[in-house]
Amino acid sequence: MTFEVCIDIDAIGFVNSQNDKSRRIIETHLKALELDPFPGKGGDKELLDLRPGVRIYRLHIGRTFTAFYEIEGAVVYINEIMTIGQAHKKYKWL
């Protein structure tokens, strides 16, 4: 099954603000979500337990960036992309 990946406008802005190498790395990792957005092998994806009834996933992108996303049917919604430091501060080291 192939998933459609939709990216929030602010997340697109973050990606576009990065240098060419970082942008390519982020785009490659996000494109991989089209094939398999669920946690499993590799350990770079994780289901977070932030709020009851809300299924937020985290994708580690290299050792520099983190993306947060939701899955609804065959659509992956990228809500936020930020540096790992920003993610740790915002989500208290989840």
Supply Rg.
Answer: 13 Å
Task: Give the N-to-C terminal Cα separation.
Answer: 29 Å
Structural class by secondary-structure content: alpha+beta
Helix content: 25-40%
Identify the strand order in the major beta sheet: 1-5-4-3-2
CATH top level is Alpha Beta
Percent strand equals: 25-35%
What's the short story on this structure?
This protein is α+β, with helices and mostly antiparallel strands.
Describe this structure in words.
The chain is an alpha+beta fold and 94 residues long. The protein has one domain (4-91): YaeB-like fold (2-Layer Sandwich), CATH 3.30.2310.20. 31% of the residues lie in helices and 33% in strands. Strands 1-5-4-3-2 form a 5-stranded mixed β-sheet. It starts with a strand and ends with a helix.
